[in-house]
Amino acid sequence: MQLQAPERIQKELIDAGETYKQVSYEVLPEYAGDYIFLDESKGAELNKEDALWLSLDAVKNNNVFYLAPDRFWPYDPIAVLAQVEEVTNMLIDKKASEK
């Protein structure tokens, strides 16, 4: 899909072979990419009026996707394959709607 990871993500996660990193909210701009997939399940809630959140390019460009917990919490091989396909379709649909 020709997507590029932010430099910091490339270095600290992809090149390092890491699959997960917890960062504080204050440094989110250093890690945020052109698209954000947000999971607010299990009681999580994000203040979508917060200045830092609103300053992110993905938010400004309406490139935030909200993940349904019932679809994205299961972690078995069949569910993960379906999740990858769904995320891919989200991105394809977004690109198509921009044309």
- Unreliable stretches, pLDDT < 50, 5 or more residues? none
Secondary-structure element sequence?
HHEHHEHH
Q: Would you identify the CATH architecture?
A: 3-Layer(aba) Sandwich
Task: Quote the distance from N terminus to C terminus.
Answer: 16 Å
Strand count: 2
How does this model look, in words?
InterPro entries: ABC_transptr_periplasmic_BD, Bact_iron-sidero_bind. It is a lipid-anchor. Belongs to the bacterial solute-binding protein 8 family. A two-stranded parallel sheet has the order 1-2. The protein is built from 6 helices and 2 strands. The protein has a single domain (7-98), classed as 3-Layer(aba) Sandwich (Rossmann fold). It has helices spanning 7-14, 28-31, 51-55, 57-60, 69-72, 77-98, and strands spanning 36-38, 64-66. It starts with 6 loop residues before the first helix and ends with a helix. 47% of the residues lie in helices and 6% in strands. The protein has 99 residues and is mostly helical.
Q: Which helices and strands, and how do they pair?
A:
Elements: H1 7-14, H2 28-31, E1 36-38, H3 51-55, H4 57-60, E2 64-66, H5 69-72, H6 77-98
Parallel strand pairs: 1-2
